[in-house]
Amino acid sequence: MSQGGKHRPFRLPLIDIATRQPSTGAEYGAVILGGTALYGPDQDQLNEAVERIQNAIEGTLTNHLLMARNHLEKLVRQSLGENVNDRVLGAVLGRSLRLGAVCVLPCLTVNGRVMRMYFHKNNRLMVKTKLASLGSCLSGKTAMSVDNAQFECFPQREWGTRFVVKQLLAHLAYEGRAVFLDEDLFGSPLSSIEHALSTRRK
Fold first, then answer.
1. Same domain, yes or no, for 90 and 133?
2. Model confidence over 67-122: pLDDT tens digits?
């Protein structure tokens, strides 16, 4: 019992949020997020739990320029101090995307696949600025390494910025504004790339 003899409001353990409808006849709350339905024993508790997860997602993204989903989910769980079902976390992330609080940056991989990176809407201007800077640098060079791009965008080379700048370059590749020369080398999509490739192979 808390100070003053009052009970603390019950918070639904996040691991207890279900993605399958409870048995017929049971009282429960429900929230439909996109194509996923979430269920809990009480509507107010379920609403609070969903809000808690959403705040953790958006708060985590506010502190990072770009994040891969697996890293985002790991830090969100750490922030919440609880485990959360993957489908529940995905459904709430989808809600933030639909509300426009979270944005997606598609990035091309060296194998031709697309990886989705996530960022908070408050970081949109910085992402746009970094992309413009890298695009300008690439247009004046035949090739640029990830290390050089990191120095261009993040001169202090803070932790994690090498990964971020590589994904920014990969987004330019997705848009056709850059090409992979190898895992860590990008080039301008101009005829001069052929010269860059032949020089590197020597």
1. no
2. 999 999 999 999 999 999 999 999 999 999 999 999 999 999 999 999 999 999 99
Whole-number Å distance between alpha carbons of 164 and 68: 10
| Model-wide pTM > 0.90 | no
pLDDT tens-digit series, residues 46-66: 999 999 999 999 999 999 999
What does the H/E/C string look like for the chain? CCHHHCCCCCCCCHHHCECCCCCCCCCCEEEEECCEEEEECCHHHHHHHHHHHHHHHHHHHHCCCCEEHHHHHHHHHHHHCCCCCHHHHHHHHHHHHHHCCEEEEEEECCCCCEEEEEEEHHHHHHHHHHHHHHHHHHHCCCEEEHHHHHHHHCCCCCCCHHHHHHHHHHHHHHCCCCEEEECCEEECCCCHHHHHHHHHHC
Tell me the residue range of the domain where 51 lies.
Answer: 3-99
Q: Are residues 187 and 161 in the same domain?
A: yes
93 and 124 share one domain? no
Geometric angle at alpha carbon 173, from 171 and 179, rounded to 5°: 150
21 burial via Cβ count (<10 Å: 0-12, 13-18, 19+): exposed
How many domains is the chain built from?
2
